Amino acid sequence: MSDLLGTTYDAVTAHVSGLPPERLEEPSRAAAWNVRQLLFHLLLDAQRALVTFATPADGEPDVDDVTYWRPFLPGGEDDAGAHARFVVAAADAYDGAAGLLRQWTVTSRAAAHAARTADPAGPVATQGHVLTVPDLVSTLVVEATIHLVDAHGEPPPAAVAHTRRVLEAIYDEPLPGSGPEALRLR
């Protein structure tokens, strides 16, 4: 799973690095953000991953790679509006996209490396929950895969298959269609 995170993060890097600056300013499929702002949101995930992999948790996991998503689903307790506004303001504080792209590239590589070297048996804590390292990595793969589709990119087939499995477990039903477009959240 750790290798899949690295492959997925590399796909995000290749996609956004290959876009001309004006395409980074185009709307993403994530309603609140353009592609550049969406990349900043993913940067926050990679930074959170670095902290989480370096901070073993006390206690047993209370969520897995499926139940972790409940607060973030429509009707959940997550305040997505505040986060969306923060992402816009913080992403817009960068002087152009080059600095953000550099920070994403370095941070995503470090997060993928940390995932490969983390103790898979050790619990970690993030966002008020404890989960296993493999379950955390799974959540990062799902997030990066969905947002790569949101950024009009093409995720690796293994990331699409993994994300599809997790989404079908979350919704307890098969997703319609096939390929990356089937991953569009409801």
Number of strands: 2
Major β-sheet profile: 2 strands, antiparallel
The first-level CATH class name: Mainly Alpha
In the CATH classification, which architecture applies? Answer: Up-down Bundle
Percent of residues in beta strands: under 5%
Domain count: 1
The CATH topology name reads Four Helix Bundle (Hemerythrin (Met), subunit A)
How many individual helices?
A: 7
Helix content: 55-70%
N-to-C span: 26 Å
CATH level 4 superfamily: dinb family like domain
Topology order in helix (H) and strand (E) letters: HHHHHEEHH
Structural class: mainly alpha
Tell me what you see in this structure.
The chain is mainly α. The chain has one domain: Four Helix Bundle (Hemerythrin (Met), subunit A), CATH 1.20.120. It is 57% helix and 4% strand. It contains 7 helices and 2 strands. Strands 1-2 form a two-stranded antiparallel ribbon. Helix 1 runs parallel beside helix 6 and helix 3 packs across helix 4. It is globular. It starts with a helix and ends in a 15-residue tail after the last helix.
Would you summarize the structure shown here?
This protein is mainly alpha-helical and 186 residues long. It has helices at 2-17, 21-24, 35-53, 80-92, 97-117, 133-150, 157-171; strands spanning 123-126, 129-132.
Write the layout of secondary structure elements.
Layout: H1 2-17, H2 21-24, H3 35-53, H4 80-92, H5 97-117, E1 123-126, E2 129-132, H6 133-150, H7 157-171
Antiparallel strand pairs: 1-2
Helix pairs in contact: 1-5, 1-6, 3-4, 3-5, 3-6, 6-7
